[in-house]
Write a structure and sequence with these properties.
about 120 residues; flat; single chain; about 0% strand; mainly alpha
C-alpha cells in the first residue's frame, strides 16, 4: 500500500476506483456479466410499468437485456431459442443533447404537458 492510499479516505478511494465507471463501456461483454434481476419478468409483461432507480443501479442494463442483442447473448447465442421469443426488443440510445433542447424558460411545464397529451 502506498502512502497516498493511507491518507486518502476510503470513500474517496472507492469513488476514484468505481465512481465514474459505466457498464455500457463493456459493450456486448456486459451480457456475459449480467445477472437477471428479480423484477425482469415485470418488464416483459404486456402491462406498462415504470422503472425507477438511482444512477448506476442497472436500469439501462436491465432494459438492454430485453433487446434482441441482449436476449440472444443471454440465450448463449442459441439460434433455436429465437423461435420461442414472444417479442423482439431494441435499444436506442437517445442523444442527450437533443433531449435537453426541450428544457428551458421559453415554454412552461404546463404547456409541454398539454402538448404531449394532445399528441396521444
Amino acid at each position: 500500500m502506498n502512502s497516498t492510499s493511507q491518507t486518502t479516505p476510503p470513500k474517496q478511494q472507492l469513488s476514484e476506483l468505481f465512481g465514474n465507471y459505466k457498464a455500457e463501456w463493456l459493450h456486448e461483454r456486459m451480457f456475459d456479466l449480467f445477472t437477471q434481476p428479480a423484477y425482469l419478468p415485470d418488464l416483459e409483461d404486456h402491462r406498462p410499468c415504470v422503472l425507477m432507480g438511482g444512477r448506476g443501479t442497472g436500469k439501462t442494463t436491465a432494459l438492454r437485456s430485453l433487446s434482441y442483442e441482449g436476449r440472444f447473448a443471454r440465450a448463449k447465442h442459441d439460434i433455436a431459442a429465437i423461435k420461442s421469443w414472444k417479442y423482439f426488443g431494441f435499444y436506442y440510445r437517445v442523444d442527450t443533447n437533443r433531449v435537453t433542447a426541450f428544457r428551458g424558460p421559453e415554454l412552461p411545464a404546463a404547456r409541454w404537458t398539454k402538448t404531449i397529451w394532445a399528441l396521444h
